[in-house]
Amino acid sequence: MSEYTYVTLRQKPQFQKQAAAWFHDKWEVPQEAYLACMEAYLSGKTEYGWYLCLDGEKIVGGLGVIENDFHRRKDLAPNVCAVYTEKEYRCQGIAGQLLDLVVKDMKTKGVTPIYLITDHTDFYERYGWEFLCMVQESDGPDMIRMYIHR
To answer: Which residues does 6 contact at the CB level (< 8 Å), separation at least 6?
Structure first.
């Protein structure tokens, strides 16, 4: 198994543009939206950060923390968002390491609990997340699973 590096974007700010393009490619959210969130984090306007798994200089996994991840429960914040691991790197614990990193980092900043929405079942429980409730997506009537990490 390869040795990967887990970092916050503050530790490697030179990855900002590459990371924004990478997340955009995975989730089709405008690159400018990622850049704006990352800039707020890098400039210290927010502690809601961005976390990367690197294989050398290549981003192979990542996630972020934002106020709201496209759902109507504005009181359930902040939200882990954009969790993704490249297909060829899956089943190696990368997502788990990133989730652990974000939970620890947010707790050191006094930010707890944190939330995430997903349509996955049985994945996040492995990493200490608990199913909380169903929430309505912000752009329609569909409901999606909300998890909490305390």
So the answer is: 51, 52, 53, 54, 97, 98, 101
Assess whether the previous peptide bond of 30 is cis (omega < 30° from 0).
Answer: no
How far is residue 86's CA from residue 31's CA, in Å, rounded to a whole number? 18
**For tokens 């429960």, what's the residue?**
73
Q: What's the length of the chain?
A: 150
Q: How far apart are CA 120 and CA 71, in angstroms?
A: 16
What's the pTM?
0.94
In the numeric block, the tokens 């994945």 are attached to: 123
In whole angstroms, what is the distance from residue 29 CA to residue 142 CA? 19
Tell me: cis bond preceding 113? Omega within 30 of 0 counts. yes
Phi, psi of 95 (to 5 degrees): -60, -40
Segment 101-146, tens digit of pLDDT: 999 999 999 999 999 999 999 899 999 999 999 999 998 899 999 9
